[in-house]
Amino acid sequence: MRDVFHWAFIGAGTLARQVAKEITATGRHKVVSVYTHNPEKCREFADAWNAHAAASGEEAMLHPGVDGVYIVTPHTSHADYALQAISLSIPVLCEKPFSTDSQKTGEALQLAQERHVYCAEAMWSWFSPIAQQMKTWYDSGEYGSLQKFRMTYHLKSIHYAPRVSDPMLAGGALLDIGIYPLTYAYRLMGYPDRIECHGNLQGGIDTGETILLSWKDGRHCEIYVSIMDFHGLEKLTLKGTKGSTKLWFYHSANHVSLHRRHGQTARLCASGGYVNEFDCVAHEIREGLTESLLVPHNATLDVMRIMDECRRQMGLVYPFEANPG
């Protein structure tokens, strides 16, 4: 079996370039084809990575030797490209959010299951050893009874890329960065029994929100998100009767500590980069799996449902949605 995993990239923007640089540096991954709707941008990306510049998504996906498709386009086209790849029986790694709503997400994941084609959301936080360690600590009772769970993600990213402020591309805070703390809370504590969301809408997008997730047993999680400022930065605080963790930049953290109230502090240092997910996905595809063990379909779909409810409460409807009810 060939050691190097061959990828077709659908999308050639800022994130695509960052990912390509990191994963190809390992020698375990190669970008062999690329497609984006801008021909000049497509050729530039292809030249940079010695890849084939395709004239369509299908051409990139069907390029000889492609092992998997990485979809890294604006949110609004994720599901369409995923459906196209699945229909061609080509494994998919699709950037978060998988789509703009749970219905489109569910359609793609259902087709993947029916066709027995591997499909995973590129929720890189949960491919990270750091996030997995936190889940292990939480599940094993290391924190004891939960007393405080709070996450902030304030990143002045409104000008990071044109899509972030474009309502026609499902721009805004929730789908772009709010998905990180919501996924963290869901993966640690399960689907909430109550969701409360208050957001700031401006120019057809949400610039930030306050979200409270609650569970019937009394646990709750506070989440604060903004693309307009750096107030609070990106920080996770989890405190229980037995232990606590304060984790900066949790979505891509390289180290984590569990401070036990009675006992030694436990620590883990590991890379929080993109390579984790690409190595894992490549391995799972080669093993013949049809969904990821770390980011299963139900997790992707449940988080989309939480975001659907947040949008409903905020009154956030994108211009391209035909049935806003």
Name of the CATH first level of the largest domain: Alpha Beta
Proportion in β-strands = 25-35%
Number of DSSP helical runs: 9
Helix content: 25-40%
Q: What is the number of independent domains?
A: 2
Q: Please give the alpha-carbon distance between the first and last residues.
A: 51 Å
Query: What is the average per-residue confidence, as pLDDT, rounded to a whole number?
Result: 96
As a whole number of angstroms, the C-alpha radius of gyration is 20 Å
Low-confidence residue ranges: none
Q: State the order of secondary-structure elements, H for helix, E for strand.
A: EHEHEHEHEHEHEHEEEEEEEHH
The order of strands across the largest sheet is 8-9-10-7-11-12-13-14
User: In terms of structural class, how would the helical and strand content be classed?
Assistant: alpha/beta
Q: Care to count the β-strands?
A: 14
Quick one: overall form? globular
CATH topology of the largest domain: Dihydrodipicolinate Reductase, domain 2
* Biggest beta sheet summary: 8 strands, mixed
CATH superfamily of the largest domain: Dihydrodipicolinate Reductase, domain 2
